[in-house]
Amino acid sequence: MGQTLRPSTLVPRGFVVDDAASAADATLITVRPLSIASACPGCGTRSVRIHSRYPRRLADLPIAGKPVLLVVMVRRFHCDAVLCGRRIFAERFDGDVLAPWARRTARLDDIVHHLGVVLGGRPAASFARRDAYAVCHSTHDRRRRRSRRNARDYQLRPNRRCAVDR
What we know:
Shape: flat
Distance between the termini: 56 Å
Helix content: 25-40%
Low-confidence stretches: none
Radius of gyration: 20 Å
Structural class: alpha+beta
Strand content: 25-35%
Number of strands: 7
Order of helices and strands: HEEEEEEEHHHH
């Protein structure tokens, strides 16, 4: 009763694998988006004219105890709208998969957030290091503070009393 390997769980939805390489210390997966067009963030006009491509490197969930580096080939498009101020724009991805300017995938960022909330900075960083993804203790703290979900999910309230053990 073995489980089959489903590539759809290894790669975020909306992407296809171009290349995969495994070294002694990490796994490198190169992916590209499936869509053929992208909407301009300035005016919303969809464009299919590709200007260029560039690699974007993101940390992803570990595989077999090794860190994974996801290399996304991001395309830059021409905006053909006359009144739009942008001539060239980079394609944007679903925020549930890859947030703009993110260094980690959303699924790894969720784990970083929850570890930061449950364990705190240094213990969370130590746990993450053992789980094959290196995240600094200040990253856990910063991610926890930055999260808008923090108060809603965990109902954190400021302390009203402080007791000292004797």
